[in-house]
Amino acid sequence: MPQIQIEDFEIKTLDNSLDKNLNARSNFDSLVEATYEMAKKILPFLARRKIPLTPENYRLFYDYFLLLKPDLSKKIDQLLDMGCRFTPEDSDELFREFYQQADEYRAANLEKVGESMTRASETLNQNLGQSLESATHYRAVLADTASRISLTQMEDPSLKYLVDNLLEETLATLSSQNDLADHLEKTRLLVSSLTSELKDQARLANIDELTQLFNRRFFVNRLTKILATAGEDQILSLAIFDLDRFKRINDTWGHNIGDKVLILCAKIIKNAVGDNFMAVRYGGEEFIVLCPGLDKSTAKALAENIRHQMEITQVTIRGQNIPVTISGGVAQYAPGDTTETLIGRADQALYQAKELGRNQVRDL
Q1: Which of 8, 31, 211, 222 has its CA 20 to 30 A from that of 282?
Q2: For position 19, what pLDDT does the model report?
């Protein structure tokens, strides 16, 4: 029987020692470098404080570090002192309070901005690479030319004067090209690093910070797109799970232990589905597995395996074994289903499992 030992733990708040001011830059290189430096401040800052790396939070803390909205920075300082986790609800409240047009900064729009920035940085990186290749080739041509000129023996004084001048200009241009190539390489590396950071940020915006499963927003968007183009022959099932009596675990052992149990459940689900299906933390103690290509009976067998793995895993908290089980509900796509109706049927099946005694899987 698998055995999981969960130890109590404490999260300590780190002092805010980051510099909140950046000098204004005007030229392109300084702007790229400033943006990159800001990303290097924001991302670790959020990660250390276990603040979700969402587009909304990135925008809030971007303004926070630059002191673009002093009242917002003051408010965030207060929330940090209080140990605020900056959940989507917290972020929405801050947007409503400090931005007149909150809809402008909704997650979908911010994600589009992030995608555009990523594409732009990738294009810029490609162009820089091509420029660097051209500059390197030109530099090699100049070096060869300078070498040939220096070996040329001229008897005519006037011709020798012209050749010497040509050699001097060629060497000066070569030196300039060396500087240009070095500059292009440095800029290319900087943009490449920024592109990587943007991709990481976009990925993290789709991930639940605690369990590392996909989050609800990403799942709903993906399922909505799938159903929008689904035909009558579409085969797709969905399983929804809920930890049994999870509130009792939180009330008895505390939310830190509750978080550990959620992480454990997420790992069991992820191990069961691998990369074949989408595993989602739908909210609180609810999880969803989206199973394209599986009919209801096959998806129910998968859900039953997840339930069984959860049941046989022995959880020990501070030396005491506690039962941790999960209930599930399964539904298959029917022509005309929307995201709401499909999830709704699975949820009804889950309700039946709860009503019939928990620690079981039902389908509709």
Answers
A1: 8
A2: 37
